[in-house]
User: What shape does this take?
Amino acid sequence: MGRSGGAAGELRARRAREEAAAREARLDGLAERRDSAWQEVEDRIATKLPGEYDRAVSLLADLHALADREGERAAFTRPLRELRERHRRKSGLQRRMDEVRPGPVPFPEHRLWEAVVRFHERSR
Assistant: This one.
């Protein structure tokens, strides 16, 4: 591989580091407002607008990542189960959450990233 391949690899690595740092900063900010973030999820869902459902699910994905980072998964899964139960008749919301959560473990990382990317692509 020539020089250009190395430069492209370095660029990808730098972008990955920058994205990881930005995500950590976002999670740090979220940690300071965790309770209000859950309320924001509820408020977005209450609008019954598809775009707001997307934003609510994106915020849920960040709350999940925060819980994982802090080793507090139960602090995420219990309120998530309750939220899903309260909004069980909102099929569009349930479908969005299912897209992010394909199995028994809520929001696995590989699906989480795909969902966040889809959300940001729709937001443009």
Q: What stands out?
A: The chain has six helices and no strands. Residues 102-109 have pLDDT under 50 and may be disordered.
